[in-house]
Amino acid sequence: MKGLHVVGVSHAFGDNQVLDTVSLMIPAGEVVCLLGPSGSGKTTLLRLAAGLEQLQRGTIAIDDEIVADPNTHVPPEHRGIGLMFQDYALFPHLNVIDNVTFGLLGQPRDTARRRAMDMLDQVGMAQHASRHPHTLSGGQQQRVALARALAPEPRVLLLDEPFSGLDSNMRGQIREETLSVLKASGVATVMVTHDPEEAMFMADRIKILGDNGKVLQAGRPHEIYYHPRHEFVAKLFGMMNSFRGIVAGGHVEIPLGRISAEGLDEGVAVEVLVRPEGVILESGGATGAPVEIISTHLLGHDNIVRVRLDGTNGLGQELIVRIHHTFEPELSQRITASLDPEYAFIFPLDEAGQTVSQSVAAQ
Ligand SMILES: Nc1ncnc2c1ncn2[C@@H]1O[C@H](COP(=O)(O)OP(=O)(O)OP(=O)(O)O)[C@@H](O)[C@H]1O
Ligand SMILES: [Mg+2]
């Protein structure tokens, strides 16, 4: 298979087990995003793939060629890998075109310059070819770094938080441009990001590492968002509303309604997590739980609304709701809240009250 194939890789620094039998397969032309808490081994995995770190266990193959196993270590420069890290690491003393031709040293000067100009053109930086990095904005430097990484036509591109230095406006634009350049090049890309929305946007598939060095879940963005199999994965995308309940008659009853708990045993204690967009607010609704509005904040397209479920002495549970901006209730107005089960996830609890194993998608 063309692309990057990581099989059963484990890695420890001393007695710190950073990666535990992690596997990853990225066909040419696909983008896989790695998400995970700080210290979960994302950079270590990229460094192992690049050959900057000696592999301890497992196998890494690129286009069916084994580049690393416990007895093999193909040096980084012979792996056909492009690298780009958060700080871009452009050479400050070289201008833009010389930065990009740097990785093309084996080629005749004319060919190298033509290839570099072609790449700069693709990232919209051809007109800045003679400028030096310190005269460029962060976004422009990022584009040059991308051109430099792709100029030698790598088989695999490894990106470690490539957009984290950019402000949010710039980030949106650059990631769109980057994605189209990656897709045009057909390279197999692994991108580390801290931003789950960025992963949703960029990735064909997302891989989530836990802090135990294991893969918690892998799948297409839709699967990760709508079928999280782990509490941590469900909570990646921001605040959740959390409820406790017991499976009875094949259902779990929470104040917002009743959820099917297919596949769970009777009497099992569960946590139900509901995304803010899974709470439906209605004024004068006939069903649902009465709530009191605490505050509303306009985000643009959506409103973020805080509500309180009716409870004794105003002590009812607070909920966070994401709802279309046209919903603008008066603060004092009483309305009802119900549930869109597509955004609700059930996780069984163990005796200590911790969530265990996989979630059961609420129906
Ligand atoms: N060369 C090293 N020697 C010893 N420990 C290391 C080394 N490199 C990384 N570690 C440790 O391995 C663990 C994983 O580090 P890594 O940089 O891969 O995490 P990460 O997922 O990239 O985190 P972040 O999101 O903060 O960048 C951390 O506990 C780190 O301290
Ligand atoms: Mg890192």
In short:
The protein has helices spanning 42-50, 96-101, 109-122, 138-150, 168-185, 196-202, 221-226, 231-235, and strands spanning 3-13, 16-27, 31-35, 57-62, 65-69, 72-73, 81-85, 156-160, 188-192, 205-209, 215-219, 241-246, 251-254, 257-260, 269-274, 279-283, 289-298, 302-309, 318-324, 334-339, 344-348, 360-361. It is of the alpha+beta class.
Describe the model.
There is one protein chain. 21% of the residues lie in helices and 36% in strands. The chain has 363 residues and is of the alpha+beta class. Helix 3 (109-122) crosses helix 4. The radius of gyration is 25 Å and the shape is globular. The protein starts with a strand and ends with a strand. The structure holds adenosine-5'-triphosphate and magnesium ion (MG).
CATH first level of the largest domain: Alpha Beta
CATH fold-level label of the largest domain = Rossmann fold
Number of strands: 22
**Quaternary state, please?**
single chain
Structural class: alpha+beta
The overall pLDDT, averaged over residues, is 90
Quick one: CATH superfamily of the largest domain? Answer: P-loop containing nucleotide triphosphate hydrolases
Radius of gyration: 25 Å
Listed once per kind, the bound small molecules are: adenosine-5'-triphosphate, magnesium ion
Q: Name the strands of the widest sheet in spatial order.
A: 7-8-9-3-10-11
The description of the largest β-sheet is: 6 strands, mixed
CATH architecture of the largest domain: 3-Layer(aba) Sandwich
Low-confidence segments, given as residue ranges, are none
**Which term fits the overall shape?**
globular
Task: Report the span from N to C terminus.
Answer: 38 Å
N-to-C series of helices and strands: EEEHEEEEHHHEHEHEEHHEEEEEEEEEEE
Count of helix runs: 8
Strand proportion: 35-45%
- Helix coverage percent: 10-25%
Provide the domain count: 2
